[in-house]
Each structure stands twice: as C-alpha cells, then as structure tokens.
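Feature request, filed as a ticket because there's no other form

It would be nice if the structure record came with a short human-readable summary line next to the tokens. Right now we just get the raw output. Example of a typical job, pasted below so the devs can see what we mean:
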Amino acid sequence: MQRALLFGFGSAVFLLAAVLLNGCGTGAPPQVTPVSVQGGYEHDAGATITATIQVARPELVPESMVEWSTNPPGVGQFLQSKGYTAVWKAPADITEDRYVELKVRVTDTRGHSSESSARVLIRAPADAGTKPRPDEPLRVSISLPDGGQIVGPGQPVRLDAKVTRPDLSPTYTWRLVPSDAGQLLPSPGGESATWVVPTQVAGDMRVTISVTAAANGQEDTKSVDFLVSPTGAGGTGVVLPPTGLSFQYSNNAPRPNEVVEITVNYNDNGTPVDEILWKVESAPGVPEGHLEISQGPRAVWRAPQNILANQTAVYVFTVTLKNRRGLTATGVTTVAVRW
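Raw output as currently delivered:
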C-alpha cells in the first residue's frame, strides 16, 4: 500500500510517496518462497528429507505458526512439522514409485495466511514386489523334497513351510498321519520339519504330513501325501495325487476392471484329474472382484472397479485338483491389483 505525505515550505508543496512493503501489511498475506528440498526432489523409500522455506517479513511470522503437512494426508512421518525447516521421513513400505506433496501453511501475527509446496518422488525399493503387503492374507505352503513323494525305509525327508506373511512371525504346528509313521522333528522356529521314515516297512503305506501357520487371529493349513515303499522310489502301483503345481498368468499386475486368466499346470502321475475348482479371497474391506470361470485348468477373474487411488489390493487364488481315485492337491497363488 502507499501513503502520501505533504510537506509545505512557503509556496511550494512537496509530495513524498512512502511505499511500504506489503509482505505482511494489513490485508496482505505473507510472502513465502517455494519449498526447497535438500538433496533434490527424488528420494528413496524410508529416506529422511529436510525441506525449508523463507518469508519476506520473518519478524511477523513466528516459527510456531508455520505448519507442514503432506498430500495425500498422513503419508510418511514428520520428525519436525513446525518452523521454517521441516524434517520428514518418507514411507518405507511402498511397492511402487509414488509422488508426495510436501505442503506448508504460513500464518502471520495479523491472521493472514499463505501456502507453498513441493512435489517429491519417492522411489520404491528394488525388491518391493517381493515384500508382503499389510492387507495380504496369511497363507502357508509346503515345499516338496527333491526326491519326490515316494520314499524308502529309514529315509530322512526335510519339509519347508513358506508363508505369504513372514512379517507376522507366525507359529507352525506340524502333524503326521498316521502318528506312528516314523518321527516328525520340527526345527526350533517351526519353519521346517524333518520326517524320519520308519526303518521297518512291511508294505506300501500312505503318509500325510500337514502344517498349520497361525498369527494375529489368522491361520492356514496345507498337507502333502507320501508313499512309503519297501523298495523306495522304485516301481509301485500305488496311486499318487497330482503334483508339481505351477501357474501361468495372462496379466499378473492388472488394473481395476481388467481380466486375468490363470492356468494351473500339474503332473497327474498317471491318474486323470477329473475336477479342478478355484476360489479367490482377499482381506476384509478389500473390494471383491468377479470369478467368471471357476472350474477347469483355467480360471478367469475380473478385477474390481473401485480400488482406491494409490492403493494395491492383493487377492489369493486357491485351486484344488481331484483325480479319478479321489486324491487331491491344492495350490495357492496371488494377484495384486494396482490403481
């Protein structure tokens, strides 16, 4: 704003214009510089980032009246959220690169406010795609031994349990059926177990080993069948369930409303598979998709339309195969839908 001051000297009148900086004058908001981010505007996930601003009239803007925030709200953690300098810790658990806006609101002692911001790119870790997501259900699987599912007397067999959520530190419970079919020795942490096959075997015997993983109110159980034969892995006429399950995907990173086809491959071990059934599960509150084809070796599923922006939803697909003799095998895979 400008004010005119008149000074009279004799017949002459002088006009003096006093120009006041309007940085924090009456009716004018404070002038704020753009947000400056130390180290540039691209950082790794989990990095600690320092951002600064300056104002035209700092004597009218106490640091306590300078407040920082993020857009989207609540992303990462502010270690220092007031003052001309902010310290912000970027989120570490992201699975893909994302932009976050660092915002600052400046209010002067006269109640006038201004805002400034900077857009920062947070790079996801290189292994982000292999890390479990917090909304992913707990599922367990058993890795088959290299020697296969036909074993001989006295043979030690190591089994490993793998879970989708190792970050939950689940507990493991192993079971042997029949219970007198040798010894089942879990490891100290329970993630694996060694089965010592009986040394005295009169004839072919079927044995089932199962493991249950439990954590945070969730649990899941998987089992695997073995044939104990006096001749070991030699010729036998005993029927085995399907083995060697693997999956192929038409699209393993679909967007909302896209279609995914999942095909299961397997070894029928000489006995035809008559029934293949699919089901899909997700965490509570996650939008459901539509399983358009749920029978046969190929499942067709359409992702939901209403995935939240900047979110990833994980869906667990379970397929159960039953052969002509009624023996079953189960496989599990996951699909992540990204906005």
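Something like this underneath would help us a lot:
Residues 1-25 have pLDDT under 50 and may be disordered.
The chain is about 0% helix and 50% strand.
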